[in-house]
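A quick aside before the break. I want you to see a complete sequence-to-structure record at least once, exactly as it would be stored in a machine-readable document. Don't worry about memorizing anything.
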Amino acid sequence: MSFPRPPWLDEALEKYRRKLHHVRMTKKIRDLRRERPISMLDRAAAAQAGLHFFTQKIKKVMDRIGVYADMHPSYIAYALALDKTQRDMEWMVDLIREHVILRQRWEARGLDTTVLDAIDDMVIYRA
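That is the input. The structure line, written in tokens, reads:
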């Protein structure tokens, strides 16, 4: 027996997803850092929380596609490397070049291109 879905549920879930989008959360955490001096432990906690949140989002993408759990670390490593380029590189030409290099490296390791495309769609926000 399943319960009927309330009419407001889809709208509430979408609002929740928008509120916790990783790009938005990164900006909020950076703004908090600027407001007051933060201790080393606070910075470490914020970094760990951000990494955990990002990893959980990548795992949801992989679970939706049906990637075996023993392949998760490889795809997560690709996503983290791609996210780092998005945060650190300033020029679009550098972003494109680095993305091509990362794709070639991880495709050569035998990762599925459809999963890499799904990760690209989630991680790349500067296009």
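Two observations worth writing down. Residues 9-123 form a domain with the Methane Monooxygenase Hydroxylase; Chain G, domain 1 fold (CATH 1.20.58). The chain has one domain: 9-123. We'll return to this after the break.
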